[in-house]
Structure formats: C-alpha cells, structure tokens
Amino acid sequence: MNGRLAGKVAIVTGAGTGGGGGHGLGNGKATALLFARHGAKVFLVDRSEAAVAETAAAIAAEGGTAAAWRADVTQASEVASLIATCRQRWGRIDVLHNNVGIGELGGPVETSEESWDRVFQVNLKSVFLTCKHVLPIMVEQGAGSIINVSSIASIRWGGVAYIGYAASKAALNQLSRCIGLEYARHGIRSNCILPGLIDTPMPRQQVMAAYAGGGGLDEMLRIRAATSPTGKQGEPWDVAYAALFLASDESKYVNATELVVDGGLTAATPGPPQPPQKGDRGDGGG
User: Fold this and answer.
1) Which of 162, 165, 183, 211 is catalytic?
2) One CATH from 3.40.50.2000, 3.90.1150.10, 3.40.50.720, 3.40.50.300 for 9-201+236-261
3) Is residue 180 helix, strand or coil?
4) Active site residue 211
5) Strand pairing class (65-70; 41-46)
6) Which of 45, 101, 152, 278 could in theory staple to 13 by disulfide, Cβ–Cβ 3.0 to 4.6 A?
7) pLDDT tens digits along 108-154
8) pTM for this structure?
C-alpha cells in the first residue's frame, strides 16, 4: 500500500465478483481491491451477499480494510442505510464509486416500456440516490470525489441496438457533470469513466445467452478484440486504475468530465458492428 488513498473512505457499489464462471473479476471488484491496496477503507456494496463477502475476504487476505454490505441501490431506503452505516463505521466518506449497471437488447420499437424503466432505474436512479445521500456528508467535510461508470455507448453507436442502455448512460454523463459543477465550490468533484470493450463477466454472460453468429464465446471474444485499435480487449484493471486516479488527490483539478478507457476505439473509424447482446445487472460499463 503506497498511500495514494491513505486515510480515505470509499464506497464501491457493484463490488461483487459478477459471476462469469471462472472469469469473475469485474470492474467493481478490481476497483475495490485496488482502492484497498492503496490505503483506502472500502465499503463494499452488492446485491449478492456471497459475492460482496468474497471481495471483502480477498481484501482482508491482502491486509486491507473493507466491510461488506448487501443492498439494492435502486431502493431509496437501502441506499440511505448503507450511506449512514458507512459514515457511522468510519466517520467520513471521501469517495463514492458507482459501478452498477445493466443493458437490455432492443431499439426504440422493440424495447418494452418495462425494459426501458428497468434499465433507467438501475443505471441512473441508483446513481441519483447514492449521490443524494452522500453529497450532504461531502459538503460537511468540504471534499469528496464521485466516480460514475458510464460507457462509450453514451457517446457513440457501437453496432448494438440497446437504446435504453445507451440513453441511460448518456443521461448519467450529464447527471455527473451537473453534480460536479453545482458542488465544485464545496470541494467536491464528479466525473465519469467511459469503458470500451472490457473483458468482464457481463459481456461473457451476454455472449453465452445471446450471440447469434454461431461461434459462441470464443468467436465473440475474437470479434471484440479485433474491433479495438489495440487488437485486444481491455481488462477490469484498466478501469480500476482510471478510478484510482479520479479517487486520489492527484486528480484534484479534474471535474465534470469523462475519462474514456477504450484503447482508442471512439477516436478510430468505426469497426464492424458487434453481435446483439442481452444484459444482466453487473458491471457498469464494458
């Protein structure tokens, strides 16, 4: 632990493994581990009690400090409880890292009203609720960093019709900017990370359920890697290190912006469309 987050208390939502059958490292778990390795006390939040306990055990095994908390961050009462518990346990909240999100397949015609509402509730309302309850604490402290995991789908068409996901992530970007600007004079920063093609459990689960190209998981991984200018997908650690920078005082003058972590994909000429994918709650981006 080299002290980049020494003395800080961080909440990480979506901090469980995310499943994925042997490939269980998601963006949230990687970020939680990295925060702890750099000296933060990490309050781990996930809908899965077993998954968040696993992350807590991994941090403890490395000598870090963490507490596990099961909650559904789309529910106001549960969000209020987890924020209050974290503050009561450690006295302050310096970093809020929102990493919960889902994607569901469908364009504007195919998407049901229920799907639209569900995606916005998870991807946007959850962040509204966590920010609503943490901001008064950060104002009182005179400092804080809010980090929201969005997606490059919020700023470009990627060949996949999941309009609810793209629209909710675009709205998340603006929500984050507004918070950063409104609270800047209180010493609070709010930024988004926009992951590109990251190899996490979420897309792997989508592939097994929905890939229509006939090649299964291996073919989908090949296509995703070929789409990137680097010739490979990113790793959860790439997102985690971006979050570490935004959580630390090194980024004290970075506010109300988006940090793209995509190997240059959004700057390049669009590659071949990706096969349709269905989503389930998991990592906030990628």
Assistant:
1) 165
2) 3.40.50.720
3) helix
4) no
5) parallel
6) 45
7) 999 999 999 999 999 999 999 999 999 999 999 999 999 999 999 99
8) 0.91
